[in-house]
Amino acid sequence: MWPGLTCLPQLLGPARRLFQWFSWTKRWSKRGSEDLEAREGRFAEEIAEPVELMVELLPCWKGLGEEERRRAVRGLVEAVESEARARDKPVLGARAVRAQHPHTRPEHLKRSPRPLGHASTRQALR
Q: Region (Disordered): which ranges (predicted)?
């Protein structure tokens, strides 16, 4: 399972997701506390608050029932996975992604001219 932020569990069922939010207001009010700095500093548990991630329905899915939405999500996931298998290019995976240094640059950069603009149709682009 992917360790990062994802809304897939909520889209596939009634999964409840809680995350830790670190209150900078609490942190700054305790900034003189040596006890706080000696432990985890800015990520100390005593300044963390649980926050539930709420996922809103896409407007185009509001008319669908819960099971229909789940089928639609499963269909989208299956389509993405089959497209990835067809390309025959494996993904790194969660462990390899976590092992990378966050500031590492790619070995090969794609160089292409910047687009003049973005539009949903060719006519709008012109």
A: 91-126
86 touches 79 (CB < 8 A): no
Q: 54, 11 in Cβ contact below 8 A? A: no
Task: Retrieve residue 71's tokens.
Answer: 């089928």
Can you tell me the distance from the alpha carbon of 36 to that of 28, in angstroms, rounded to the nearest whole number?
Answer: 11
Residue 40's pLDDT band, with cuts at 50, 70 and 90, is low
Looking at per-residue pLDDT, the higher value among 5 and 95 belongs to 95
18 pLDDT above the threshold of 70: yes
Beta strands, E only, the chain? 18-22, 48-52
CA atoms within 13 A on the CB side of 7: 10
What does the alpha-carbon distance between residue 45 and residue 99 come to, in Å, rounded to a whole number? 25
Distance separating alpha carbons of residues 74 and 68, to the nearest angstrom? 10
Token representation of residue 38: 């000696």
